[in-house]
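Chapter review. Work through the record for Regulatory protein, luxR family before attempting the end-of-chapter questions.
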Amino acid sequence: MVPQPPALALTPRRGTGSVLSEARATIVAMPRWDDAPMVGRASELALLLEAVDRAAAGRAGTVLLSGDAGVGKTRLLDELAVRAGERGVRVLIGHCVDLGDVGLPYLPFVDLLRPVAADPSLAAGANPVLAPLFAGRPVPAEPAVPAGEGGDLTRPLPHRAAPPPVNDGRLQLFEAVAALLCELAAERPLLVVLEDLHWADRSSRDLLRYLLARLSDEPVAVVGSYRADDLHRRHPLRPLLAELVRLPGVERLELSPLPDSDVGALVRRLAATSGPLPDSVLEDVVIRAEGNAFYAEELLAAGLHGEALPLALTDVLLARVEQRSPDAQQVLRVAAVAGRRVRHELVAAVSGLDDGGLQTVLAEVVHSHLLVVSDDGRYRFRHALLREAVLADLLPGERVRLHAAIAGYLAREPAAGTAAERAHHARESHDLPGAFAASLEAAAAARGVGAPAEQLQHLEAALALWSAVPDAAERAGRDQAALLQETAAAARTVGEPSRAVALLRAALEVLPAGAEPAERARVHYTLAQAMVRVEDDAGAHRESAAAMALVPAQPPSRTRTWAAATHARMSYSVGRIDEADAAADEALAAADALGFDGAWADIAVTQARSRPGTDPAAVRARLDEALLRARRSGDVEVEMRVIFNLATVTFEAGGIAEALEWTALGTRRARDLGVEWSYYPAELRHLHVTALYMAGDWDASLAEADVLARVPEMSAHVRAAALLVLVGRGDPAARARADWARGLIPRLSAHVLLDLVTAGSEIDLAAWEGRPQEAVDRAQTVYRRLRQEWDDDHLGILRLAGTALMPVADATIAARRVGDEAAVERWVRAGYELAEAARTAVKIYRKTYGDVMGVEAQAWLARVEAEAARVRGESAVELWRAAVEAFGFGHVYEQARSRWRLAEALLADGDRAGAAEQAAAAHAVAVRLGATPLRTALEALARRGRLEVGGVRPVEIGAVFTPREAEVLALLAQGRTNRQVGAELFISEKTASVHVSNILAKLGANGRTEAVAIAANRGLLP
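Structure tokens for Regulatory protein, luxR family:
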């Protein structure tokens, strides 16, 4: 059994044929995949290698490899050839070429045998029968060589399988080729590769049939490739394939499209030299390529250079269309305009063909693999890019005419399509009133099936047409302000609060002058709810105050209740506590009196989370009741808010496991309701990712962060949270993910949480990579933004400062070691500023909320104080014990990282046993998590401190250095010069210099400082 090979990459090279090769010349030069390690195709390569291994054992075998053009057959065969060569197998490769009606007999065998003829050691050219093949000349159908001539190469072969009948004129040639291959295989096993058999001439097909029947017990493996999409019903290769698969030892292997993950890996590798690839480009290429490596390459070139569909790729795709009859091309145009899938009845109604003619044409395009029949009976293009190419080739007038014909058919037969389809075709045919009405109908249908993203798309399409449709209000059954509010609600549901704010502002502008105050108030408080999601607390407070001013408190009403509930939240957010308390009390009383459970639950959450000093048990009881009322009311947004706050309260108390139960419940519920990217579900998912990371389930955390490729930009912090694991594992992908997230921050200026998530991971990355100034600069930049955006809650600086202090302390220690006082002063000052920023944030928070910091914040504060002590040059064992204990609430990784520093401190204080215990505990966690940087640091500590940790054994100094060299090294670590070393050891300066040179050579160091650092990390300092 051949071992499973490692992951492989796949891309077409020669196999896409001469047409693609010429087309590719027009594409901007980019790096190629051909010479890179393969990604994917592991199972297919393993099967092919099994055939090679069987041949090496004396059992001939054949694999017929099929796949669409560009899917990667040639790249796989290239890899096979390399692997076979590494096994000691001789590889011969022949290529068929598309020469149209002009065929050159035996062309792939001429190609295959060319290296044989060029090798004088083989002496294969002695047979005159083979001379035309070796010369690369056409071979006559009736060879002129008399029977019996040709020497040993024409001797009968002792095979049990009877060869297929051939005429006497070609038998000698066929026998000569078979004999030659047997002779080559007798020296060492042979792999024969024949590419693009769909282009093989008839003579070559006959010779292949003959060889496969004769070569049954020879150490020869044959692999032939062909394009499945080129094999129409009457293709001459079809009957040969059917005949060959009946032979013993012949099997078929279909090369399916690559999985999206493999295409993504290939695209990233191809674009690597151009810098980080935007996720939008990557996702677009992966989706449109549909697993075809060549298409992915061409689309990437287009994506990086502004093309919708590369001209070269369009030409390649249309070449197959243009080979079809005019009626077939017309049917393909109808299908392309109709959509990816099209019903038979629509094609019949629009194409203009009678039943008999239509059946003939459909058979033609299906048998040519241009259209395929889906399970539901509809026709679809074999590849989406083929449809794009057909569409791109249509003249504008022809496209409008086809859209109009399809729209007319769908209007006559509403059951034949959806409202969304009718809207699309009406719009493309310039029937704006029809498109407007159909868009509204499509929006209602999308809302009915829980598809808010599609609902928003259709509502915005209707809004865009409003001014162009004279009777828009009559057709819509509502005024423009109402439609704007409906669209804003859909935007909030899909996680686009900025869009919702713009729509609601537009609704205020178009409200009629005589609109009811209650209607205007509803727009104001809804706008306030949207504005707070884009960090505009002051603006949100203005809008909620405007809503309160429009509606009287008495008698109680639904509008006034929601206005008061909203105003309470906004007032708390800007620190106007008395105003907030009054609004909250009013809203709660009115909700109770009117039975508005949704409003009651909403204001109960606001009170429970905004009033400092509230008993945690009382908060939990209040939230539990709010959840019951929210569910009873059917208000999904309020229900999600309650679940988020239940998860947050539990999380802040250190109940990570229970918090995960709430986050899982909330994300599952939101997904079922189709609102998973509205504000609170997105926050629940982010909390879920973070809690999994803290609990030490890093694989699950990473999977949840990347559960969907496409997320709204305001939910980008969910994907950015994957940085926690990527940085912790030392994954090279961390840098690209961080660059992507940071690139969004200027555009999403209101997204403070994205900045916090990204900055925290970037600081950690800089810390591990030894870039202290970068860590300090990033922490200070985000802290300034925090103070600007949030008046009273700056606790996010605790993690940033605690992480940034790590490389600052390292830099301070290194500067002290070499006596660089200026550097010591600089880093001590930076460390002091970071620590003070953290302490100031805590003071501000406590002044507003009291001493109610969550356990994570307390743990990071303990880390800040312990790292600040390192900056001051203190071992601070007790501060590090406090940090270890503080992170024991459930933050597995940070507790292990604190244990690492505690082990260092204990070692500095001479407690070797305690240091070994802490280091071993941290090392076990690092191994389990795959936290490579932490594991490396712990093993370096073990070597430096000569501790037995995680299988690391102390290195004996005497095994590396002589006793005198060890003495010299100890003095070098104290910063001594050669003269000082000589004086202290009573040796000459020249002798000391010789010892130093020996030490540098043994450590592979370029200087004294580097030598000391290397020796320390390897535990070689006395």
